[in-house]
Amino acid sequence: MEKLALRTEGVTARSGRAERGEQVIAVLAPMSGSAGIWGPSCISCAQIAVAEVNEEGGIAGSRLVPYFLDSDDGNVSALEAEIAALIQEKAIAAIVGMNVSSVRQRLNKIVAGRIPYVYTPLYEGNEHSPNVFAIGETPADQLEPAIRHLTETLKVRNWALIGNDYVWPRSSHAVARKRIGECGGAVVFDGYVPFGLKNAEWLAERIARAKPDIVLVSLVGQDAVEFNRAFGAMDLDRRMFRLSTAVDENVLLATGEENTKRLFVASGYFSALKTDPNEAFKERYCASHNTHPPVLNALGQSLYEGVHFYAEMRANQVRGRGPGPIRYRSARSGTYLSNDRKDLTIYLSRADGHQFAILGELA
């Protein structure tokens, strides 16, 4: 039988919750599979956001209650059934989810706009389903300026593109191909693998035969770890650069510093950011754990944002404010304008051992 949920607090009928002044949201976090490496930080960040919302009076006076569910792609059938039942029973008011896009697309059919679905991570763009709010970065935000910058500074021309076989890598690579061509480059390899990559040496060998100058890595979580380990073990980093928009501090740590040379990442958030909002966030994050906290990263922080985005959106509705820009608490600066437009800063970093050295902002 599939293990589905981490139930930090049980879900009862909405009427009972309402009488006690509580509002339940389903919080989706990867707890298994390739993306499971991000689960602990996702859960921790969401818990901090929920605590902060409740400390400030909740949502329209209602205490926010999280209901954690495993969002792994391999568990999506069970997740669909659980979400359908929760909505039918009116047990949840919204979904805040950090999951891959293939899971989001399947859940959209189940949710069908009946409750808000705040989708938090970077994604491929073009999400226009009713009542779905995609607050993360798109390839236009991350990939396009990173390709342009690295082409100019590293003088790279030939690119290899690798990713998991689902919508985010394929759509992102379509954007990358266009930008690479506009910058005078060429794609010499474009390949996709299922989730659960094992023995990644064969993939690294195929990349080596294609002889690119740089590899765009669009692999999820543990799959990125496996590939980057194989890449480093074959000393391919001596003659090729790597770029990713999804390699985070967890992947960096698991990959090992000997395998992360000449690896660049474009992202709207790194734990190394020296900003007042991030320093305050990290202080709360560390204080919430008696021992060493899970490694902080962009995917976890996105769930922190997602909970606060939902709270601010509901507060605006209660105040009678119409649709418009939404500013919400975050460990970075940013404003949601629409699913396709956000006002945020994208940073380029280089792996430096087990940490990232932030090189600057991408324009």
Automatic annotation (TrEMBL):
Gene3D superfamilies in UniProt: 3.40.50.2300
SUPFAM superfamilies assigned: Periplasmic binding protein-like I
Keywords: Signal
Domain called Leucine-binding protein: residue spans: 24-312
Coiled coil stretches, renumbered: none
One Pfam family this sequence matches: Peripla_BP_6
Membership in a protein family: Belongs to the leucine-binding protein family.
Name of the protein in question: Substrate-binding domain-containing protein
Source organism per UniProt: Microbaculum marinisediminis
